[in-house]
Amino acid sequence: MATMASLMGSVLLPMDLCCKRDSFASAKSLFLQDLKPLNLGSFGRRRIICGCMAPIRGFRPAHADELSPTKFNTKDSSKAESLSMVREPDEADVLIECRDVYKSFGEKHILRGVSFKIRHGEAVGIIGPSGTGKSTILKIMAGLLAPDKGEVLIRGRIRHGLISDEEISGLRIGLVFQSAALFDSLTVRENVGFLLYENSNMPGDQISQLVTETLAAVGLKGVEDRLPSELSGGMKKRVALARSIIFDTTKDIVEPEVLLYDEPTAGLDPIASTVVEDLIRSVHMRGEDDVGKPGKIASYVVVTHQHSTIKRAVDRLLFLYEGKVVWQGMTHEFSSSANSIVRQFASGSLDGPIRY
Ligand SMILES: Nc1ncnc2c1ncn2[C@@H]1O[C@H](COP(=O)(O)OP(=O)(O)OP(=O)(O)O)[C@@H](O)[C@H]1O
């Protein structure tokens, strides 16, 4: 059974099984087999491929009525004023919202009412002790796992169940797992262009050109024909990132993309970590990629334990502990927080409310 998968541009790829096959065709057939452990078998293939990518047209936020200026009598200024005071001004910028999310595995109650919002343009870190559910919440955001209770809203619309092209619109969600998770039997070109070869009408030479451009954006040149086994760990992570940011440039509408990174710097030496942290920044819309173009990722979320990644790659932090977000704030506020849980975690002390 695949223990890791990557959701890239809304598509799941099997990871650790790929090395057992030696052809692109085999990888394609594994693609669907591996979805079954994730309980996605009932979805047709097209639906999985297009999950999270339904057209933005006709998009209507859950609170569209409340937000409408015609909802309230404008003469009732006190009501309008009190509403404007409680409503956050940039609600329309929210791309993903987790609202009171619960998740258990058997008797283990992992998430117990997790709520937060990811806004357009944000770079957010999720931190917290081991086993507290950070990867679990990423998978729930990506649509790989369904919450037991609570809601995930994608651009204001509640997502029902797992990824499905009919229910989610206007947002691509990419999940980049800790291991680079490449198809070992495919070349770098085939890995990076996998979705486009499989699901777009783009001609092969156009995909190949796009692959080369995307690899250049993450600082890789001349590796298209190599196999993953011929790359260093850091290069593999770059290839995985290229695979998650490539998209069909012939489409009329390109939805914003949120990238979810699960421990992207785990296992890397400090310098290699810095390279990856800068890469994460560079593909973000506020950054600049390796060829000097502005990045295209609208927002990203990084689960990490690494102090350097917290400091270098994210602006805002969510601290998850005992199934809830117990603290959130800007990265620079983290080390000076008075919250005893945060203080203990930041100092690595054995004394404090966190027990191992
Ligand atoms: N599919 C699953 N089935 C059973 N238990 C699971 C499953 N997925 C996660 N868990 C359990 O849920 C808990 C939270 O796991 P998760 O990987 O989300 O934690 P985490 O905060 O990311 O941990 P770490 O920082 O160590 O990576 C763990 O105890 C884990 O064993």
UniProtKB/TrEMBL annotation:
Transmembrane segments: none
GO molecular function: ATP binding
Keyword tRNA processing: no
One Pfam family here: ABC_tran
ABC transporter domain: residues covered: 96-347
SMART domains in alphabetical order: AAA
Origin superkingdom: Eukaryota
Protein keywords: ATP-binding, Nucleotide-binding, Transport
Protein's name according to its UniProt entry: ABC transporter domain-containing protein
Species name: Cinchona calisaya
